[in-house]
Amino acid sequence: MIYDKHGVLQMSELNFGSDRPKAENPIKINDVSLRDGHQSLFATRGRTEDMLPVAEMIDDAGYNAVETWGGATFDTMHRFLGEDPWERLRVLKKHMPKTPFSMLLRGQNVVGYRNYADDVVKAFVQRSIDNGMDIFRCFDALNDFRNFETAAKVIKDNKKHLQGVVCYTLNQPRLGGEVYNMEYYINKVKDLIEFGVDSVCIKDMAGLVAPYDIYNLVREIKKFTDTPINLHTHFTSGMGDLAIFKAIEAGVDIVDTCIGPYAYRTSHAAVEPLIMSLLGTNRDSGMDINKINAIAEEMEKYIPKYKHLDNNPKYATTDINVLLHQTPGGMLSNLVNQLKAMDALDKLPEVFRLLPKVRKDLGNIPLVTPTSQIVGVQTVNNVLFDSYEGEYAQITKEVKDLCYGLYGKTTHPINPEVQKKALKDYPRGEEPITARPGSILEPEMDEVKKTFGDLAKDIDDEVLCALYPVTGKRFLKWKYGMEEIPADVKAKTMAEVEKEEELVRKALSGELTSKGKGNGRELEVTVDGETFTVEINDPNGPAAPQFKGRKKKEAAADETATGSVVAPIPGMIVECKVKVGDEVKVGDTLVVLEAMKMMNNLDAKAEGIVKEIKCDSGDSVAKGDLLLVVEPKA
Ligand SMILES: O=C(O)CCCC[C@@H]1SC[C@@H]2NC(=O)N[C@@H]21
């Protein structure tokens, strides 16, 4: 008896434990907290040390699989956290030997933002397997499955699980093109099955799928295949839980969830209500809610370390606007941060307004890493540079590559005018290719070995450098003690986090004096001899104050001097292409600047001789920083 005579639910009567009768067709549940959960909520900054306390508990909870790696984790770990991504995989595997590990692999883009050569893809997948990976959720941002071929072969040769992904997106009716419909998705699923995948994932990376749409889609798929179907959706619009429920009703086999503290907003449905909602039904997961609850309570303890990374200033946990701009959560927070750094946050509405147009220009592609980044950043460039140089004045290298066909086949043809502009003087030629991109890319691993020499001590180091040459090199110097890990990269203890929170509290209550950043929103405070900058958000507003870290001295840029080349946007110097004394002509590339993961060539605007160089590979630069001086020809 679950209800008493008044119809009131008697919780004590429910058998919450995993010893309850097994359901007819139990839903299989994945946990994605340790990868997509913190990627979606906390800019992928989750540290291994905060995963270990729950690792064994998660391993014991009866999940189908646990997503521990891939996506943006590889990038953020070595770049921002000073952590070796391979080591995380090994350590987690030691603590979680029972549950299969799953990773998000961006097909030929691996865990980066461009298509890599086949030898890099092979080496990466092989080392992932050797280090403990079991299930490869393999996707391509254009749904061009030729980009799976190289990775799939290694996965299959090693008898690991290949989960093929169809990226789910919506039409933008205002802009025409009704391509993303039932027929499209059914054909894509059929293509995957023919490809030989072990399971299929419908990946709704932005949280767009409506409950009845997924219901109908799963029903249709179930008519022609027994291949297990996995739904991955985000909560963002608020439809996530409803979509999962309808998919379960339609017979979906596996769903992705997060544990409470890492769930909702731009992340995923929480596992707890799902387990409870299905209890006693034919799709009961069989999982023990008490075990999950214990994990949630442990995870809560570490949230103070990450709360400041949650950029959402709103009280609402849902955002229906995502159905219009369709930008995945991970990309949204990136856009906001970058516009902030450029003092251009007021341009965000304009970026959202133009984003669908840029998406259409670039072939009406799904927006998922790296295309979300490529389209988002190009839109930012169009907004910021448009006023004085016309649309597409600063085209990123990745847009040029996309126009050339280096990412694969776009859903619709690219706007010919944009394509022509992008491919002007493109080094591989001005005529786009139609072949599988990997088939024309020259091998890269030998060059990596030569370039990094003794610094890369093993194949894992080499693969890291192949994927991320500049930040990879910097990371290896930290790893082998050749350079000190900067303070803002090092992990903070809970005591330090608490001290920072205390500082912010004091700053807000007026106990600390402002050293006047002018606008009254930043305070410089000294505690125990250390100087900190504390950014104060509107104390009356809903957002928490943000701790910004140790104050850095920055040289003022000489923006006015003739021949000065300054950073037009903040970013990181990848390469300075010239040296002092070089003669340059208009259009010659002087510097390659990475901004928001995209490469921008900064070209000479006038003829002259390079007089001074003020930047080096790996330098972080702010907007307006002086990079070099070119003395104009008389
Ligand atoms: O924080 C960083 O700088 C690293 C990640 C940046 C890009 C992420 S990757 C996942 C998400 N999707 C995108 O297109 N961009 C973000």
From TrEMBL:
It is an enzyme of class 6 (ligase). Transmembrane segments: none annotated. Residues 556-631 form the Lipoyl-binding domain. Gene3D superfamilies: 2.40.50.100, Aldolase class I. Residues 27-293 form the Pyruvate carboxyltransferase domain. GO terms for molecular function: pyruvate carboxylase activity. Its EC number is 6.4.1.1. It holds the Pfam family HMGL-like. It comes from the Bacteria. Keywords: Biotin, Ligase, Pyruvate. InterPro entries: Aldolase_TIM, Biotin_BS, Biotin_lipoyl, Carboxylase_cons_dom, PCB-like, PYR_CT, Single_hybrid_motif. This is Pyruvate carboxylase subunit B. It comes from Marinifilum caeruleilacunae.
